[in-house]
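Teaching note: in complex prediction, the entire set of molecules is handled at once rather than each chain in isolation. The prompt given to students was simply: 'Predict the structure of this complex.' The entities are:
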Amino acid sequence: MKKNAYFGLYIVMAILAVLPFIVPNSFYLDLVIRMAINAVIVLGLNLLIGFAGQISLGHAGFLGIGAYASAVLPTHFGWHPLLAMAAGAVVTGLLAGLVARPIFKLKGHYLAMATLGLGIILNIAIRNEAQWTGGPDGMPVPTMGLFGFELASDKQWYWVVALLLSVSVWASLNLIDSPFGRALRALHGSEVASQVVGVDVVRYKVAIFVMSAVFASLMGSVTAHYVGFVTPNLADFFHSIELVTMVVIGGMASVYGSLVGAVLLTALPQALATFEGWETVAFGSILMLCMIFMPKGLVPTLAAKFGKGD
Amino acid sequence: MSMLEVKDLSIHFGGVKAVQNVSFSIDAGIVYAVIGPNGAGKTTLFNLITGVYKPTSGEIRLDGEAIGGKSPNELATRGVARTFQNLQICMNMSAIENVMVGAHLRLDRNLIKAALRLPTLKKRDAEARAEAAELMRFVGLDAFVDARADAMPYGALKRLEIARALAMKPRLIFLDEPAAGLNPKETIEVDHLVRKVADSGVTVVLVEHDMKMVMNLSDRILVLDYGKKLAEGTGEEVRRNPDVIAAYLGAHA
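The expected output is the structure of the full assembly:
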């Protein structure tokens, strides 16, 4: 980790500060907000996949828990949205911890299988519990109120999300360059070497898995309140894969790669919309070409090319 | 009382008895070497004592406490460090970060404090970095303090492992073939380094094929053959032992 790693954070903050004044219309502002929300989720997921070397194929499920906690609890039980958001995060954290602990005692790709299954189960639960969740049609989400002031306009949401993103980038950079973060990267680099210096690998894997799941849940809640409507698609398998793809395209173990991956893959479907019906094919081809020609992801590949560390 | 006591230690992998009823003890402050032909069970013995493998039977005691079957990270808390014959360097990290990981147990590993970069943690981390740089100089890696691990030559990586182990501030260190694959000049440097480590008060257990280095450094030597203890004693005793001569030179020598 180079000393100037934080320089990128200032650039990100500068971009975030001017963006709302230069986006041409509300369509683009909405796109930027969705990019930023995805970026926060991908940052958390990259800590798990890129830095700790563990894969989750069910992160959209955790996102779904957060989103539906924010939809169901205030609507049916009259909970305060912030309380509902916290409850979603706690349930997600407990569930992630419960699933992860036994799995991480095994070696191999069991986590990928287990999270894949968990994500699918959560999605089915959301689709089937129609009396609570609205089933496949989804349900509306009440607006988020903060200290007597309603978060309603896109401009307001933009600043909230921009703040969340800046703090997440800062916290991720901090974490990577700390004893905790080094232990994570070490167990990825050599599990046995990290064990013999005293790293309790199961505990660290569980901790980062729970943390990234909670990140996804919180951002699921934010998405729900921002969009004002939730559907089970938020929590489906394809969304999980989309999130993993953002990590991989942007660059594993790269904080700024997470941002680039989230921005590109959130924009790509919009840019490909003119291909009508062929956009999935185009999407897939771009991903394949990316993997063939820059398997390390965009940011690490470009950083290596121009001789600058991440 | 000995620092490390091993009694009737065995491990079987299916039908293969990799280590059979091996007993020995190591006093604090000495350099103890384990030698034997390839496949004799030296690395397996290291893996058993450092918790990478669980023994099938037998006892391992560190300062009287039974440690057989404890995990490597539990042993690390008791001051046991090791290096690996086949390098185990984290290539996804810089050289100095590899050494800093060695100080893991002596640093504040709190996740929240780390994410918020609290000043106390930041200060301690800067100290850890300085300590790690100091250790890299101690093992002769002055030129690699700012290097990436994946850009370092093999000989330097061997020493980086030693620096990482030393960052634990261990009482007992297991070095698995520290001179393997090194040229004669590098071998002599590692020989001096092991001496320096031993002189700093750390008990050293060494697996090594370079006999000159073993004879030069070791206070006592354990000879293994086919997973069994063949002989144990000082360099002179071992060298004169007829069983050892037979094992190394063939029975009819």
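Point out the following to students. DSSP finds ten helices and ten strands in chain B. Residues 119-138 of chain B form the longest helix (20 residues).
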